[in-house]
Write a structure and sequence with these properties.
alpha/beta; Rossmann fold; 44% helix
């Protein structure tokens, strides 16, 4: 199977407006940060946007906080409202945006397209980073981060160069997320396949879906992701 499951289209004069799709632990966040650094894109993470909206005490942020405080899920309309506010802030930027972790469902994707169409905007590429489930489990089970700077490590795949010391900030405190274990990851993968994989035929029908082999090294995956961005969304 080729690295990218499509031929590169002719270059368009559009700023990048990207959706990254992939399983939990598949490397979306890492690739989004690399794109953000090189192309000066705005990385829009739903988790970060929710926290920012709550901190700013916006109308949707206050509603989200009330729901979360009562133990309820944040419904689609609230999430879409927060995404809309964030995207509106990028509308007059020539650099575009990356949606990381949104949309997660077909309904969210349809609502996103409707909202963008109202603003004469549209997704230029939906990039799936494809990684087999068992590789995801092995990646996530055993990972930890530096408590000071957030640099990521892994018991088997990426240990600090000096035991007990972060390579970046030299800190000595590390933390593990309680849900970074094999059972929890498999449950999250089941949810991903049920709720999020229907986005793939949706974006394929729109002609904007690209598939990248996520089993390669971070730099190799980024090289393929970058080719998509350069070829589809040149401002």
């Amino acid at each position: 199977m080729p690295l990218l499951e499509r031929k590169l289209p002719q270059i368009q004069t559009q700023m990048p407006q990207l959706v990254l799709i992939g399983p939990p632990g598949g490397g979306k966040g890492t690739q989004a940060r690399k794109l953000q650094h090189e192309f000066l894109l705005t990385q829009l993470s739903t988790g970060d946007m929710l926290r920012a909206a709550i901190a700013a005490q916006t109308a949707v942020g206050l509603r989200a906080k009330a729901l979360m405080d009562s133990g309820n899920f944040v419904p689609d309309d609230v999430v879409i409202g927060i995404v809309t506010v964030a995207i509106d802030k990028t509308r007059y930027s020539k650099n575009g945006f990356i949606l990381d972790g949104f949309p997660r469902t077909l309904h969210q994707a349809e609502a996103l397209d409707e909202m963008l169409a109202d603003r004469s905007m549209g997704i230029t590429a939906a990039i799936e980073i494809r990684v087999p489930d068992e590789m995801i489990v092995s990646r996530v089970d055993g990972r930890y981060t530096c408590a000071r700077c957030g640099e990521g490590y892994h018991d088997r795949f990426r240990r600090p160069k000096v035991a007990g010391r972060c390579d970046v900030c030299r800190g000595g405190d590390f933390i593990r997320r309680p849900d970074d274990n094999a059972d929890t990851v498999r449950a999250r993968l089941a949810t991903y396949h049920q709720q999020t994989t229907p986005l793939l035929p949706y974006y394929k029908d729109k002609g904007v879906l690209w598939v990248v082999d996520g089993t390669k090294s971070i730099d190799e995956v980024y090289s393929d992701v970058r080719k998509v961005v350069v070829s589809t969304s040149v401002g």
